[in-house]
Amino acid sequence: KPLLEVKDLKAVIAETGQEILKGVNLVVNEGEVHAIMGKNGSGKSTFSKVLVGHPHYEVTGGSVIFKGENLLDMEPEDRSLAGLFMSFQSPVEIPGVSNSDFLNMAYNARRRKLALPELGPIEFYAYLFPKLELVNMKSDFLNRNVNEGFSGGERKRNEILQLAVLEADLSVLDEIDSGLDVDALQDVAKAVNGLLTPKKSVLMVTHYRRLLEFIKPAFVHIMEDGRIIKTGDIEIVSLLEKEGYKAMSTS
Ligand code: ADP
Ligand code: MG
Ligand code: MG
């Protein structure tokens, strides 16, 4: 069953009108893991941000259907309530809000949307602790303000915790692997693999193949100049290693 259907998606930088996405086509079904790879500057982050409704970009053509609804019509917050999660390349600091409160609020917002009862702090902790263990995070992180004074590695780990807690239907991970050592990568993989059910899907955006050794995607897409120019299985990653992105190019 299709979860995300992207058809001929075109987008420009709002401020300058420069076209970055030049017709992206992609279908992600429930339960599937997809990876988008491509050279730096090919439009991978732009695509992820357009999906979550980042204001720097303006959609100029095409359509995005998420769970049967027009995603492009929704406010960013409603996209997240609808079950779309995105990890950001540079996550924001939220002064004055502790991590656990933030996670509890975000989780409850989603539960309200699903017409499920909200979890109070004690119930939420019971839900949260196994997740902390899953991503190898110390519990004192929970009392710190969101991302405030976190090291690069701690921010990443925090993103992974958010991913594990929110259990979104589609999690978009933009270079969640950048700057991570192998131990942290394995924790990312555990969190992602622990999240996968026959209904939940993951779209990983990466410049490197390393992550794909830990989280095996069924589909790998190569992006170039604002389009997906090739789709295959994990085998095309080996081809990529051997022959480079040039071998994929159609132009
Ligand atoms: P990738 O994630 O594949 O490295 P990006 O989506 O970050 O690629 O960028 C695609 C192209 O769009 C690059 O040439 C980048 O410089 C440009 N770009 C993206 N966002 C902006 C922006 N807000 N302002 C100016 N240029 C941008
Ligand atoms: Mg980049
Ligand atoms: Mg990028």
From TrEMBL:
Residues 4-250 form the ABC transporter domain. Keywords: ATP-binding, Nucleotide-binding. Transmembrane segments: none annotated. This is ABC transporter domain-containing protein. GO terms for molecular function: ATP binding; ATP hydrolysis activity. It comes from the Eukaryota. It comes from Linum trigynum. The lineage of its organism: Eukaryota, Viridiplantae, Streptophyta, Embryophyta, Tracheophyta.
